[in-house]
Design brief:
This protein is mainly α and 129 residues long. It is built from six helices and no strands. The chain has one domain: Orthogonal Bundle (Globin-like). The model has no long low-confidence stretch (mean pLDDT 89).
């Protein structure tokens, strides 16, 4: 049986594998090119690990505004519903490959919720007639 997510180390493992999927996907890579080109991937992974650590374990390490960061990125590279579908799919796949349990389900539920809110804020649910 797979263990549940129980530490920041587990979250970092998830983020590292998750980004392996994202960076290998040609439709997702443009969102991360600047981070990779500036050799900031490891720093970025630490920041998002802090974000998820706060969510799962009620820490207070993440000091940025996740929504604002994505809205700023959207001004240069437009997010589409398909990007969020891929993001959620890779996220779930990564978690499910190594973990199961209450924290695993909580992390997936929060990821789905965050993706939905971001799409709403970016007006991606509007009817495009």
């Amino acid at each position: 049986m797979k263990p549940d997510i129980s530490s920041r180390k587990d979250i970092k493992q998830i983020m590292t594998k998750f980004y392996d999927f994202l960076l290998a996907d040609k439709t997702m890579m443009p969102f991360f090119e600047e981070i990779v080109q500036e050799n900031q991937l490891e720093h970025h992974l630490e920041i998002i690990t802090d974000f998820w650590n706060d969510i799962l374990f009620d820490t207070n390490d993440y000091q940025q505004n996740v929504m604002q960061k994505h809205l700023q990125k959207n001004a240069f590279i437009h997010f589409k519903k398909e990007h969020f579908t891929s993001w959620v799919s890779y996220f779930f796949k990564t978690i499910d490959a190594s973990f199961t349990g209450e924290n695993s389900e909580k992390m997936k539920a929060r990821a789905q919720s965050i993706a939905t809110v971001m799409q709403l804020k970016m007006n991606l649910f509007q009817d495009k007639k």
